[in-house]
Amino acid sequence: MAEIKVGKATVEELFTVLVGDPVDGGTVTIYIVKSDNNDLPFKDFYIATFYGTDIEVVWGAGSTIMDALKDAEMKWDREEGEYDNPFREALEKENLEELDVLGLAGEVTVKEVLVEPVRDGRVFVYKIENDNNNEENDDDEDSLFDDFNPRFEDFYIATFSSTRGEAVWGEGSGIESALEDAERNWDRAIEEYGCYGEGEGECTNPFREAIKALEKMEKSKEKEEDNNVLLNY
User: Fold this and answer.
1) Alpha-carbon span 70 to 139, nearest angstrom
2) What is the pLDDT of residue 142?
3) H helical segments located in the chain
4) How far is it, in rounded angstroms, from Cα 74 to Cα 226?
5) Average pLDDT over residues 41-62
6) pLDDT for res 69
7) How far, in Å, CA of 38 to CA of 30, rounded?
8) pLDDT tens digits, residue range 80-119?
């Protein structure tokens, strides 16, 4: 059995956007995440968060700033459609890179939680744990980043690894939601840009393959548990 990968990554704020009205609004922040471990060779990626009511939540991830913001925008529409979309408001801002920078930076722990072989590569899911939310760090007066630590909640990312490298395609609050987000983003990329590579006319979605494999594994596990219950009678 292969050893589960665990490593560290650095998180650095690129900019923060004020959204909504001054009283009931919040902030959208873009961070870049960089792996510190050769055993976690995924490419640098970006996350988009929203801070509104004393909690910062990651809503989107992508290989570019715009991909992360668009991912977050679509997720907000699906889950919080009755409220104004802060990520759409951020996307409408001009010169995003010239907006406020609060100096937020810190470190996260990256834990591999799923590896699924698929056509032409492998799908990975990692849990990203924010070390800056650790209570021990809160009491450390000598903390490297002091009060400038990112405070977003833990989240998951789904990546696809091939001969082109390993890139992030989706984000979620759990394994399944990260895979489903990546599945949607892959389909959207195919619709927009077409199939990449020669002889790949089927446009196979690796995350759809991984989701089906995960569902099959869960059904097999449920069947095994049912059989064990019957044996105990």
Assistant:
1) 36
2) 43
3) 65-79, 86-91, 135-138, 175-193, 206-231
4) 39
5) 93
6) 96
7) 24
8) 877 889 999 999 886 665 566 778 889 999 999 999 999 8
Question: Any residues with CB less than 8 A from the CB of 201 and at least 6 apart, and which?
Answer: 195
Task: Output the six-digit token pair for 114.
Answer: 């799923």
Round to whole Å and give the CA distance between 109 and 5.
11
- Residue in this structure with the two tokens 């910062």, named with its chain if needed: 56
Centre a 10 Å sphere on the Cβ of residue 150 and count the other Cβ atoms it contains. Answer: 25
**41-69 as b/e: b if 16+ CB within 10 A:** ebeebbbbbbbbeeebebbbbbbebebbb
Angle, CA 124 vertex, CA 213 and CA 36 arms, to 5°: 170
Report pTM: 0.84
Tell me the per-residue pLDDT of 16-49, one tens digit each, with 9 for 90 and over: 888 887 657 789 999 999 998 778 889 999 999 9
Two tokens at 8?
A: 């560290």
Q: How many helices (H) and strands (E) does the chain have?
A: 5, 8
Structure tokens of 41? 């060779």
CB atoms within 10 A of CB 112: 17
Question: What does the pLDDT read at residue 18?
Answer: 87
With CA atoms as reference, report the closest residue to 137 among 128, 126, 127, 150. 150
Q: What's CA 63's distance to the chain center, in Å?
A: 10
Q: Render 143-211 in DSSP notation, one character per residue.
A: -TTTT----BPPEEEEEEEETTEEEEEEEESSHHHHHHHHHHHHHHHHHHH---STT-TT---HHHHHH
